[in-house]
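User: Please predict the structure of the protein below. I'd like the answer in structure-token form so I can feed it into my own downstream comparison script.

Assistant: Understood. Taking the following sequence of 131 residues as input:
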Amino acid sequence: MENYQNQNEPQNYQNSNFNNGNFMVTKLPNTTVSLVLGIISIVCCCTGIIGIICGIIGLILANKDLKLYKTNPNQFTGVETTNTAKILNIIGLVLSIGNILYSVYAIMQMGGWDAYMQQIEQTMEMIQQNQ
């Protein structure tokens, strides 16, 4: 057990919440939420609107945390995670908007919404006849 380290020893506290001047060092408040929303926006980019909503909310929260960090960088930790969350939200937004634009383009190439709905109805009829 040579590599055993006592968890109560001070050198093991990397992100400690001890007084650092007149304030406590804390994590940025919305980092985790923004990161989760960024992941959801990427996963749900195929649905379009869900990816856009999650991406916008996550991007707003990440930018809010970055502004908070810039006001007092010594008070907060986790800015790297917030930057990662911001990047994920931007990627999710771009993919979601790209998916919506491609869907609109594909529907217009079919002849508009009515032609698209007729094609769906024909496909449903073929499926029912094959059963």
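That's the full token string. Strands lie at 19-20, 23-24, 26-27, 76-77.
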